[in-house]
Amino acid sequence: MGKTIAQIPKDDRPREKLLRKGACALSDQELLAVLLGKGTASMDVMTLAAKLVRLMDEKGLRVTANDLTQFDGVGDAKATLVLAAIEFARRRIKPEGSRIETPADLLPHVRHYADRKQEHFLCASINGANEILNIRVVSMGLIDRSPVHPREVFADALTDRAAAIIVAHNHPSGGVEPSVSDIQITAQLRAAGNILGIELLDHIIFNRADYFSFLEAGRL
Question: Would you say the pTM of this structure is higher than 0.90?
Answer without folding.
Answer: no
